[in-house]
């Protein structure tokens, strides 16, 4: 498979569905090749792509690849998915799409802060930093100081914010 050609064909196609290519992985899988495409995007509520968006894009990608020389002559399996909740937050838009979610941040060694992980809610995002609220106190964490950051899965229902409570009245 010609990966640069695949990227060149898939990227504008995804843009038609307001999606962006997050990762492309090509690997042998027995007699076939596995082509795994990970997508991201704002989606209808700014929190990531919907399943319907991904399904429509998958059908379009499949049709395009059936006609493309980029996949070569061998059999392949196509998988298209979103980043998933366990994917690390890397780019500012990853952080923005997870606003108000609980996150665990492991600071980069030598950063101007404790090496202890920070766990709190993403309360704001700029081009170069995230604001993390820990017990009501906001901490600004520059992205360059982040070794790894992941969303924490919460199994209990999230407490409503003051804005949400006011809307319900």
Automatic annotation (TrEMBL):
Its main location: cytoplasm. InterPro entries: Ribosome_maturation_RimP (IPR003728), RimP_C (IPR028998), RimP_C_sf (IPR036847), RimP_N (IPR028989), RimP_N_sf (IPR035956). Residues 89-154 form the Ribosome maturation factor RimP C-terminal domain. GO terms for cellular component: cytosol. One of its GO terms (biological process) is translation. HAMAP family: RimP (MF_01077). Required for maturation of 30S ribosomal subunits. This is Ribosome maturation factor RimP. It comes from Naumannella cuiyingiana. The lineage of its organism: Bacteria, Bacillati, Actinomycetota, Actinomycetes, Propionibacteriales. The gene is rimP.
């Amino acid at each position: 498979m010609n990966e640069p050609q695949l990227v060149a064909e898939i990227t504008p196609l995804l843009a038609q569905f307001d999606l962006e290519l997050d990762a492309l992985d090509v690997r042998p899988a027995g007699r076939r090749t596995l082509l795994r495409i990970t997508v991201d995007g704002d989606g209808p509520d700014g929190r990531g792509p919907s399943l319907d968006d991904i399904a429509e894009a998958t059908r379009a990608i499949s049709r395009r690849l059936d006609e493309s020389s980029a996949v070569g002559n061998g059999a392949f399996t196509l998988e298209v998915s979103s980043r998933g909740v366990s994917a690390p937050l890397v780019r500012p838009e990853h952080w923005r799409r997870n606003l108000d979610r609980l996150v665990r941040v492991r600071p980069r060694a030598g950063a101007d802060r404790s090496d202890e992980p920070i766990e709190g809610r993403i309360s704001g995002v700029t081009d170069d930093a995230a604001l993390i609220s820990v017990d009501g106190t906001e901490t600004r964490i520059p992205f360059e100081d982040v070794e790894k950051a992941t969303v924490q899965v919460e199994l209990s229902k999230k407490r409503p914010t003051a804005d949400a409570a006011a809307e319900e009245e």
